Amino acid sequence: MTETQPAATTMYAAHPVLSVSGDPRRKSPLLALVLSAMPGLGQVYVGYYQRGFIHAIVVSTLIALLDADLGPLAPLAGLFLAFFWLYNIVDAGRRAMLFNEVLAGRTGIELPEDFKTPGLRGSISGGLAIIAVGGVLLSNTVFGMSLEWVRVWWPAALILFGVYLVVRSVMGRQPAQ
Prior knowledge:
Layout: H1 10-14, H2 29-35, H3 41-46, H4 49-67, H5 74-103, H6 124-143, H7 148-153, H8 155-173
Helix pairs in contact: 2-5, 4-5
C-alpha cells in the first residue's frame, strides 16, 4: 500500500467517536438509530427530511397492505416490511456517521440539500391533494359519508402520483425556449 492510499479501516479506527471538536451540528449515530425505531425519524434528525418522510410512508403503506389481507402475498409483504424497517434503522445511523465525517472535513460527501428547516414554499399539486384528503375526511366526520370507497379506490392515488411524476420528468427534459 502506498503512502497516498491509507487502509480503509484507518479512517474509522483513528476516530471511533468522530469527534468534531464540539461542533453543535454533529449528529449522534446512536440517537439516529434509536429514533429510527419510528421509521424515518432518524433520517429527519440527521437532516434528510424527504428520505425520512418517504421511509415513514413506505412502512405505513406496507402495514396498511398487510392489514388489507393480501392473501398469498402477505408473507412476502411481511418479509419486505421487516427488511425495510431494519434498513431504515441502519441507514439512519450510517447517515449520521457520514454527516459527522463531512463536518470533520474527512470525506467528499455532501450535506443533504434539504438540511435547512423545512419551509412552506407551496405546491399546487400538494395543496390540492391535501385539500382533497381533508374534504373526504370532513365529509365522513360532518356528514357521516361512508369511506368504504377509499378501501376500493386507493390504488388510483398511486396511479395519479405516477402520472404526475412522468409528466414532471418529461416537462423537465424539454429544452428551454
